[in-house]
């Protein structure tokens, strides 16, 4: 063992290759706004998260509650049509056959009307959030100046003005979607609608075509996850 340790005594022989010094990673300059969050940062994040919450509630109402009632309505009408088709010609259907199905259909129509009213209320909430977003922008202009609002990146690259101007586009696709939903409800309301037309209406309900690309999830969620620090922080 003493011979093995002896090989470590004395200076190491020089090598012909130069010793590479460790390099320090290049760190990009940090925006002054990112060093410490202000009330403006926190308020903007809160308002954006509220817009996300509204959109999530919208999807829950449309794709869970609304879809259930629309399908219940179509199923009850289809079952009644099938029952009536089995009756002999010129015979009157018994009330115990027709009555319960009509009651189910009437209840589903009433529930769909209530769902449209809930969505209208969500749109008013969304409009209020956008008004508050604009108000926070004007307040920041007053306290920090127009140049700060236009040029200073809040977290990554977007300044406050870009957030505010871009969010103005959030509301329109939801207005269009609600108009479509009301139209679908009116179509399903008619007892003379065919099964094929009902099926097409249900497909439109599920697709929410105006929100597929321009709704919150399709257009804004990933962007906010990148541009807003602590976006998903609890």
From TrEMBL:
<feature type="coiled-coil region">
    <location>
        <begin position="105"/>
        <end position="143"/>
    </location>
</feature>
<feature type="compositionally biased region" description="Polar residues">
    <location>
        <begin position="13"/>
        <end position="24"/>
    </location>
</feature>
<feature type="region of interest" description="Disordered">
    <location>
        <begin position="1"/>
        <end position="37"/>
    </location>
</feature>
<keyword id="KW-0175">Coiled coil</keyword>
<protein>
    <submittedName>
        <fullName>Uncharacterized protein</fullName>
    </submittedName>
</protein>
């Amino acid at each position: 063992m003493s011979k093995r340790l002896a090989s470590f005594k004395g200076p190491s022989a020089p090598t012909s290759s130069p010793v590479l010094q460790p390099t320090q990673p290049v760190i990009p300059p940090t925006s002054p706004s990112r060093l410490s969050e202000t009330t403006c940062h926190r308020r903007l994040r809160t308002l954006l998260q509220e817009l996300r919450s509204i959109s999530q509630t919208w999807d829950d109402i449309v794709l869970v509650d609304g879809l259930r009632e629309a399908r219940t309505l179509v199923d009850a009408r289809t079952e009644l049509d099938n029952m009536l088709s089995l009756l002999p010609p010129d015979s009157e259907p018994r009330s115990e056959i027709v009555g319960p199905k009509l009651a189910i259909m009437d209840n589903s129509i009433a529930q769909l009307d209530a769902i449209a009213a809930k969505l209208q209320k969500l749109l008013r909430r969304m409009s209020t959030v956008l008004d508050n977003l604009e108000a926070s922008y004007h307040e920041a202009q007053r306290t920090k100046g127009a140049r700060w609002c236009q040029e200073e990146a809040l977290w990554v690259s977007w300044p406050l003005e870009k957030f505010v101007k871009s969010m103005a586009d959030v509301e329109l696709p939801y207005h269009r979607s609600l108009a479509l939903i009301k139209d679908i409800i009116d179509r399903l309301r008619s007892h003379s609608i065919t099964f094929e037309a009902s099926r097409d209406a249900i497909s439109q309900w599920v697709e929410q075509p105006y929100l597929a690309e321009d709704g919150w999830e399709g257009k804004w969620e990933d962007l906010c996850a990148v541009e807003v620090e602590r976006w998903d922080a609890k």
